[in-house]
Amino acid sequence: MFRRKVQPLDDVLNQFLRQGGLESPLLQKRVVDAWDTVAGSAVARYTQEKFIRNQTLFIKITNPALRADLSMMQSELVQKLNAAVGSMVITEVRLY
């Protein structure tokens, strides 16, 4: 009789992504995609560009008043975005 090592598919996929160096880019993509959900649809209308560089999420907000309001909530946004992904991906949010 054969004895097989059975692992959950989630563990196998995470291990594969980690070994291939794809885990970090995938998590970064998830953070960028989570912005519209975390910030809300009203903020998403004024959002144009979103990208991550060196664990910093850069977001272009077209409304100056909204940008000022969001800049006061930066630490809260970082916590909510990381929580949405389930991992510590970003350490800072910069609005421009």
Summarize the structure.
This protein has 96 residues and is α+β, with helices and mostly antiparallel strands. It is 54% helix and 18% strand.
Give a written overview of the molecule.
- The mean pLDDT is about 95.
- The chain has one domain (about 25-95): GMP Synthetase, Chain A, domain 3 (2-Layer Sandwich), CATH 3.30.300.
- The chain is elongated and about 70 Å long.
- Strand 1 (about 45-55) and strand 2 (about 55-60) form a beta hairpin.
- The protein contains five helices and three strands, in the order αααββααβ.
- The protein has about 100 residues and is of the alpha+beta class.
- Strands 1-2-3 form a three-stranded mixed sheet.
- Helix 2 (about 25-40) crosses helix 5 (about 75-85).
Query: How many structural domains can be distinguished in the coordinates?
Result: 1
The global form is elongated
End-to-end distance, in Å? 63 Å
Which class in CATH terms? Alpha Beta
- Strand content is 15-25%
Rounded mean pLDDT is 93
The biggest sheet amounts to:
3 strands, mixed
Q: Would you count the extended β strands for me?
A: 3
User: What sequence of helices (H) and strands (E) makes up the elements?
Assistant: HHHEEHHE
Rg result: 17 Å
CATH fold type? GMP Synthetase, Chain A, domain 3
Number of helical segments with 4 or more residues: 5
**Coarse structural class:** alpha+beta
